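Reviewer 2 asked us to include a model.

Predict the structure of this chain.
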Amino acid sequence: MGKTLFDKIWDSHIVKSRPDHPDAVYINTHFIHEVTSPQAFDGLRKRSIPVFRPQKTRATADHNVPTMDQHLPIKEALSRHQVEMLTKNTAEFGVELYGLGHRYQGIVHVIGPELGITLPGMTIVCGDSHTSTHGAFGAVAFGIGTSEVEQVLATQCILQYKPKRMKIEVNGTLRKGVLSKDIILYIISKISASGATGYFVEYAGDAIRNLSMEARMTICNMSIEMGARGGLIAPDDITFDYIKGREFAPQGADWDKALAYWKTLYSDNDAQFDKVLIFDAADIEPQITYGTNPGMGMGITQQIPSLEQIDEKERPSFKKSLEYMDLQPGSALLGKKIDYVFIGSCTNSRIEDLRLVADLVKGRRKADDVVVWIVPGSKQVEAQAIEEGIDKVFAEAGFQLREPGCSACLGMNEDKVPAGMYCISTSNRNFEGRQGPNARTFLASPLTAAAAAITGRVTDGREVFGF
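Predicted model (structure tokens):
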């Protein structure tokens, strides 16, 4: 029997396996940031042991960093302390750090791919749930907890039970104005925020194969939002072309050797998955969430479900969610007033996202009563945006281009949405208080977010931008 892509990578990284025990899996690359690493380093310090293979770990500051005036001391005490501890710990244990001011600094799941650190066939972990982003390259990548961060720092291995395998196919041609963010929000709305719990997902089908690497990263990024352990896409020429020539990618003879291996990374025709789901790309329209988990989503032209459409056991949580959002069952979102627009996060902060938004809003002006934050995913994305004149387009539109960081994806830094206000966000989570205490979040694509910025309301971007 053939093997799935996941099995090929996982099995080749097993250091030790015993029945009824977790596998000891070797980790090729370990990314760390300031939030989930301090306790792990303290654990090493208390046991008087070093980082086993420091060259396999890369660190950056992203969650707590301000996205304005990064040359100045961080104002929030806790954020400042965590960033300072990352600097101290990486220096003490010999780990490479891309801190504030470094030309490689940025969101951990943006810098890995753009620097050529993320490669096909790897096992990759980080103390961050959206590590699944790196799976877009045909890697087994997943988030881990703080105790596991310490485990990997100490041994370069991790103990994990092997998850089940799921294949999600999206076939056909996407309609105009439908982006990768709409694909993944659509899938999650259909299977729920727990529909892939216990599985590692492989995305396949011609609609997936036709996506750029940036778009594939968006898909894999949100695998965790349907409960999956992670998600991956088999590498192909689009993958190889993206990687070639990047800072830390293989070169010369090493490139040829790596490429020969990468071309073996696909699921065999007779590989068996534990579950297979198939979707038609033509059924997908621009998506938007209405509730407080990413599974509570719908097409932009649709209406919030009525109470009668919800399973009886789920009605209490459904009602609680809509009360938090101050929305009514059965109502439409089109025309709903918006206060903030956030375009950024490890889901949608790459140069492709910024280029798309700039192309859409060029020559237009934001609505007067809307605050628009554009937050690049890295210093390299920021520099590229400035080099291409994207910063000027945003300035003329009244959009604020900020500095790299996780920003308003989560209320862990200075970029918070005020209580009671509505934000259309290109990030990945719409939990209660996620963007700030009592902030209300609609998840959507960069196109839908750009349309809301221009109109000040939830709007079908296809109509605003003439698709």
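The radius of gyration is 21 Å. DSSP finds 16 helices and 19 strands in the chain. We have added this to the supplementary material.
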